[in-house]
Each structure stands twice: as structure tokens, then as C-alpha cells.
Amino acid sequence: GENVEQHPSTLSVQEGDSAVIKCTYSDSASNYFPWYKQELGKRPQLIIDIRSNVGEKKDQRIAVTLNKTAKHFSLHITETQPEDSAVYFCAASTNYGQNFVFGPGTRLSVLP
Amino acid sequence: ETGVTQSPTHLIKTRGQQVTLRCSSQSGHNTVSWYQQALGQGPQFIFQYYREEENGRGNFPPRFSGLQFPNYSSELNVNALELDDSALYLCASSSGTGLSYGYTFGSGTRLTVV
Hints:
The structure holds 2 protein chains of 2 kinds.
Chain A: E1 4-7, E2 10-14, E3 19-25, E4 32-38, E5 45-51, E6 56-59, E7 62-67, E8 72-77, E9 86-93, E10 100-102, E11 106-111
Parallel strand pairs in A: 2-11
Antiparallel strand pairs in A: 1-3, 3-8, 4-5, 4-9, 6-7, 7-8, 9-10, 9-11
Chain B: E1 5-7, E2 10-13, E3 19-24, E4 31-37, E5 44-50, E6 53-57, E7 64-68, E8 74-78, E9 87-94, E10 104-105, E11 109-113
Parallel strand pairs in B: 2-11
Antiparallel strand pairs in B: 1-3, 3-8, 4-5, 4-9, 5-6, 7-8, 9-10, 9-11
């Protein structure tokens, strides 16, 4: 079955700097890749997603890139702010969104 | 709020007991998926219900079972609780099973097995 790896497990950046989180997946049939942000004690919230027919997608300070050949995708956050501090999860879906396989998460800390 | 509600928010059970968790899907959503999130880990897919039928299942034993009702609300039942079942249980609803449909998580039920 699908396996999703995520790096790094923790990331600290200075406010205003960029943060990059990388994920790899194993199943070439995966066709949908969402990213979720989870603050302490709260539910995961979708922040951006990308489909396999697109190489890059951007939404204000957040962007995601997908390399289907290498089977990896990345989350880029620019001009980081303290409220970006949270755990970020990548996920991959092999069955048109029926179920997601999540990565283990990255704890991002934005230092003031 | 998202419109997906889960109850109870917190629960403490003893090993060997049974538990039922509930999820009310967002209005207009006919698909409910359940995930288990252990502390410090990503959510793991348990199963999905679409129009009252199970529509996919992850790698969980049969003691994890579910139901979906005509109003599309859902229950997750866990029998013979084990200590490792302690986790945050998340319910997500969507208006279909395909890529075109949004996926909204509820706030979860935190289950502690002692």
C-alpha cells in the first residue's frame, strides 16, 4: 500500500523567513495531495492541495510543488508569521480522495 | 465552525470495554470517513461510509466497526478496548467520494483507555 514520508520532523525558522517541508510517496497511482495544518488540540485544517495533473499551486504565502517522476511534493511557506506555528501533515490519496495516507507530520515553530 | 460535530469530546474507558463515538456530518454531505490519530502521529484511515454502506477500510481489526444512518450521521464502535486504542478519533465528511469534493474534519473525540 501507499507509504508517505515527511521531513523534517521539526523545523524552526525566524519570523519572516521561508519554511519548506518535503514529502515522498510510494504509490505512483496517487493522484491527490492535500496539506493540513493542525494547531494544538484542534482538528486538522486543509490549507492547500494539488492534483497529479498540476506541477505547482500557490495561494498567497503558501505554495505546493509536485514532482510525479520523483514521487515527491513540497510545501513552501514564505514570510512566516508566529501564527504559522503548528504541526503540518502531508497526505496522498490513491483512490480519488476516498482515503488519505498521512505523513508523520512536521512541527513548525516560527520564532519572533 | 465546520458543521461536522463529534461527541463526546473526551472519554475515558477501561481496557476490555466497548465504546461508541458519534459524528454528525456537515449539511449536504453524504460521506463520512473515520481516522485514528495517535499522539504525535498523522491520522490513519479506519473506514469510510457512503450512503449507509462501508466504502473502504484501512488496516484496522474487525473490533472497529461502524454505521451510517439515513441522515448520514455515523457511529464508530470499538469493542474489547486495548491501551493502544488511546487516540484522537477524527470524523470527516464530504459530499461524495471523489476528488471534486471537500473534506471537512470534525474536532475529534479524545479516547483514553486505562
